[in-house]
Amino acid sequence: MCYKQKYLSMQINPQDQTIETKQVMHRTIEIVSLYESEAKIYPRTVSGFFSRWRWGLVFLTQLVFYGLPWLDWGSRQAVVFDLGARRFFIFNLVLYPQDFIYLTGLLVISALSLFLFTAVAGRLWCGFACPQNVYTEIFLWIERKIEGDRTARLKLDKSEMSLEKLVKKWFKHIVWIGIAMWTGFTFVGYFTPIRSLAMEFITTNMGSWEVFWVFFYGFATYGNAGFMREQVCKYMCPYARFQSAMFDKDTLIVTYDQARGEPRGARSKSADADALKLGACVDCTLCVQVCPTGIDIRKGLQYECIGCGACADVCDNVMDKIGYARGLVKYSTQHAVSEGLDKRQILRRVIRPRVLIYTTILLAISIGLLISLALRKPYKVDVVRDRGSLARFVEDGKIENVFRLQFMNASESAQHYTVSVRGLDGIELVSSPQMTVAPTESRWVPLRVVVPQDASTPGSHPIYFDIALLDTNQHLIEKAVFIIPK
Question: Domain holding 411: CATH number?
Fold first, then answer.
């Protein structure tokens, strides 16, 4: 929108006392909207090396995501995060809240893996395994099957409303919603046993929180993969913003060989490019048409590029058709393109100090986590003083303290324990020293401990509970404090 504004001045004519108006300034003010809606992107279908890898990972990730909750391990679901019981079951592992350190280690490994892969080969995660792009690829495939290829979809969206358009649009959205809701149901199935959840759904007895999360995650999948698509990658994902800090000129990225491709221009298949003084790029713009974020890779590295390699696939297909060598658009490094490095030189530069440091740290943490899991004891015990029972004098003049021991059976078989106590002269356990804990059960057991009145001076004194697992050589030692009153 534009406005034209005139600045006027007035002065009095001394002869006829009339007012003269003179234009002293003329300026045009242009108002530009701060928000500009972007045109919808219609990615073209492409086939090639990177496309096969991308679809292979789509099948693999979705096979794991949708299939894992239905696997059984003994008498239970193989992988389930039971928040109500505060236990995580991962195949033969049973983790408690006290095992939070393993989750921390897993998050650190994931972050370091992301740093390593990005330093080596750019946004591999984004282009091939990120859930946003995986579901976008699935939804785009459904859209192509129902509405047609890129040209047909463009024509359909520009046409007036008709019965054909209405049926195609509604059918597409019904399929999208079905997949989105199944995705939400599967997601909740990782926290509520999925077979029980299915029965609750069939009998309409699902809990309110389960219904909320099914619809919430389903709505997020439907909105992100069906409508927002590349907007999530370009504007909402923080990874696109800080990736430049992990890139350098020896990082493998999807890149355009400008020296070979320029000057670009159209020509017939039989034309002599050297005679026309043209580069290898025929300016077909197919690399732009297949890009899921709608960028032109020929303009250089851009933060919107997710590294999917679709432009490299379609460019190779074009080069094959016109008889040129492949690799005008390819996975390479900026140094390799500018200096003409071969594969061996590229690999030598890729294995650089920062990559070696990331790899060393990642291996050290991964090995440490695996060793910790291998040496992890199949039970845990926490000792807590009974706050409802203070130190007191009992029969025979002895002093009694009551403790509560939480036994956490981290295995799927019943465990039998024996408990002993030491740390003060004459200390003894009054309660039964043996107890049984059911499989994967967490059980609180009160224990009475007494000492002679003259065992030590008044105050707090450290004592130690020795908890042994019967029929094994495993035992734990837990420290506690015994109070002797004045």
Answer: 2.60.40.10
Q: What is the pTM of this model?
A: 0.81
pLDDT at 35: 57
Whether 287 contacts 297, CB under 8 Å = yes
Q: Rounded to 5 degrees, what angle do the CA atoms 198, 202, 208 make? A: 75
Report the pLDDT value the prediction gives residue 293, as an integer from 0 to 100: 92
* Residue 3: predicted pLDDT: 43
For residue 475, the enclosing domain spans 379-484
Average of per-residue pLDDT across 335-359? 89
Which among 332, 361, 376 is the end of a domain? Answer: 376
Domain end (from 311, 346, 376): 376
Model confidence over 294-317: pLDDT tens digits? 999 999 888 889 999 999 999 999
Residue 472, token pair as written in the block: 């094994």
pLDDT, mean over the chain = 88
Q: Mean pLDDT throughout 368-377? A: 89
Q: Does position 7 have pLDDT exceeding 50, yes or no?
A: no
Say whether both 225 and 76 belong to one domain. Answer: yes
